[in-house]
Fold this sequence. Notes:
Chain A: InterPro entries: 2Fe-2S-bd, 2Fe-2S-bd_dom_sf, 2Fe-2S_ferredoxin-like_sf, 2Fe-2S_ferredoxin-type, Beta-grasp_dom_sf, Diverse_Oxidoreductases. The complex is a heterodimer of chains A (157) and B (798). By secondary structure, chain A is of the alpha+beta class.
Amino acid sequence: MTTRITVTVNGEEHTAEVEPRTLLVHFLRDQLGLTGTHWGCDTSNCGVCTVTLDGTPVKSCTVLAVMAHNHSVGTVEGLERDGKLDPVQQGFVECHGLQCGFCTPGMMLTARWLLDNNPDPSETEIREAISGQSCRCTGYENIVRSVQWAARQEVTR
Amino acid sequence: MTTVDKPSMGFGRMHRKEDARFIRGRGTYVDDVRLPGMLHGAVLRSPFAHARIVSIDTRAAEAHPKVKAVITGKTLEGLKLAWMPTLSYDTQAVLATDKVRFQGQEVAFVVAEDKYSARDALELIDVEYEPLPAVVDARRALDPDAPVIRDDKENQNGNHIFDWTAGDKAATDAAFARAEVVVKQDVLYPRVHPAPLETCGALADFDKVTGKLTMWCNTQAPHAHRTVYALVAGLPEHKIRVISPDIGGGFGNKVPIYPGYVCAIVGSIVTGKPVKWMEDRSENLMSTGFARDYHMSGEVAATRDGKITAVRVKVIADHGAFNGTAQPTKYPAGFFHVFTGSYDLEAAHCEVTGVYTNKAPGGVAYACSFRITEAAYLIERLVDVLAFDLGMDPAQLRMKNLLRAEQFPYSSPTGWEYDSGDYPRALQLALDMVGYDEIRREQAAVRERWAAGDRSGTLPGVGISFFTEAVGAGPRKHMDILGLGMADGAELRVHPTGKAVLRISVQSQGQGHETTYAQIVAHELGIPPDDIEVVHGDTDQTPFGLGTYGSRSTPVSGAATAVVARKVRERARLVASAMLEVSADDLEWDGAGRWVVRGSTEQGRTIQEIALAAHSSLELPDGVEGHLDATTVYNPPNLTFPFGAYVCVVDVDPGTGQVKVRRFVAVDDCGVRINPTIVEGQVHGGLADGIGMALMQLIAFDEDGNCLGASFMDYLLPTSVECPSWELGETVTPSPHHPIGAKGVGESATVGSPAAVVNAVVDALKPYGVRHADMPLTPAQVWRVIQGSPLRTDLAIT
């Protein structure tokens, strides 16, 4: 049994047949081939599957694909616009905000959401924003600096 | 903020080359690989820690419309694959045939058209078990009435695996006999799990026509895996290609060969299709390489004024149901015998006994540098216990006992030769950075108020840890895994236009090899890093070597890279001599990419010019082959010995048991830093590990062997709010035997940091008379410690 859903992903509309139990993360990865969104734990703890749903970060391992029907999803593949990196992406490069790269897409999407809603966050606000997402490589230090770098770029722009 | 030396021609800060794909979501992790016709595998696992298998009925699963194959131990027995060798010369069940020996053990494997159907079919397999009593606590494994776990092995009567000793027992006992002071402490390093965010997985693709197996797998040791597959499956080694793509963290979890990998291979052979198997998080935490589980009993002999003379240690090592630890064969307890740490001792001795329990196999993982985490934690805890008993300041006690710079190279009482170090300088820098005296004054004021009866607020604590690491295995003479010597190859080819390709045996799991190894070549040859492609993680494309773990990449493959680049440089010299029509002896390297005529530096040729000439019709001297390339195999003469001084400041709330890490200062000396930004990043990650292990991470079990840490809801990882902003310092003491003076650093902080955190918490609780407390120091554990129960006697306690 499948259900037809229409989801806008990174501004592009996709219509597909899915099993009702299909997780959004699997829909994005397996049906749309958007493998930049990762999977890590099944219990909403690690956050490597973080995407935005109508602009708000969600953990796509605990959202059913059918729940995204007629909604808008943002993934890491949509951060770069017209060949121009998002300041958050550039910040992660500048400040060595990633090592293995597995948590990075989710971290960047949360960072993007944070700066959209709070252009000049304090270090504590940045740490709180990403506290639902794990990183095993960076000890979070350079992720925080990456977000700060992006914030500075955007403020001065 | 990180600054960048632009554009680097060698060592220094530069952006990572690999970031371009990762920030766009364009990395290729094993689960991102899709092959036409690919099927999906799932593993049925044991719900019991110890049980006899009475029967397995797979008929209903086989009848599932989307199931292509169901494989059991019986299937594998027919292929002689039901058991496989471990990396410690033991055997491990691929799929259980007789008994299950830990909860989560592999029992059957389903191959289906999609992963959801594969999981559905697992539910349709009916296994009848006859439960048996389980051995959960390693300290009871050798009891005469303990159930025998490995009754599959001939002559295995109990649960004993090995006894291993190091050091001079007689000299140590003599030092203890005449000691003015002896302190003793039982210390548990509990079972933890590396928990990389990407779980383990593989995609096996067996081509029946060519007989070639292509194995995509997130392994840290692709070449070693290929050899083991050849030995286990009887496939010819040249027909096996292991591709280790981008890896989402490893930390030692991805060194062993897991049953799921073998099942994926069998599944592909049986179905004729590529078969992917990715474990889920619970499978990862319950069945793959855990870390530690060392029950240690340590003693320190000292003079009354605090000079440590000897250390004596006994360990019960819990290896789980199969001895699958991955470490050099000669050393069943890994490098634990570096437990004398950074101190100048007369004598030391350790006895380690390895035992089987009904728990997942493993033990050597999680950035442990082959058990140095356990060793460093033990000695740093013991030094603080000694300070407590003597009423001495722990910083002063350490200063008094640290090896001095003039003692290097230093031969340790347990047989190591430390290559280089200046320990007091590093400790003093850390103390200065943290403002040690000022924090002690603040603490004294709080304690005074506390003693006067005002017990509001938190108690500050300061913890110090000084560690010495031993990383970069081999030398191959002493170190092998399954008979494979721990030496690594490198190949470097400079193309006609002066662009180079470096092929190395080690595999990155986030360490940034594509950047740092290009920097090494740039440093040696003057070719910009952007003109150097680093190829790794594919056995068809790279020279043989043992892989990335134990912080061995830079000490071994980094050295191989420098050596192979120097070989190319020497070849270039001969070509340049032909180009310039001068004797090669009259040429000198200008350190920036040119061979120049001595005394006439405007006369010279760049490496790029030489590369083109080497591929041209230029007549070359006799014996000089054309082209510009070289290969090497680097066999390290010794390990490298990075070290560091860490100071942690905590605030402990005795009312709630909550620990807040206020500050963490880490001074690391890893010799010459190729890319300081990457080094600092590695240290940051390891420091977070220390917070995790000291305060929250624990794979606990109940008395029946049920795993209580099987999800991230139970096995807690540190987040951004538990971690402080790390304060890093550095000293540089080059390794005298490494070609570029570098030492490994990937695991330094994981090794050094847990003791600093625990020492800080114990120090905070001094007003309660607390002398020791077992990790992890969760609020509940801190509460128990305050109530007078510092040891974790019950493995179920969380």
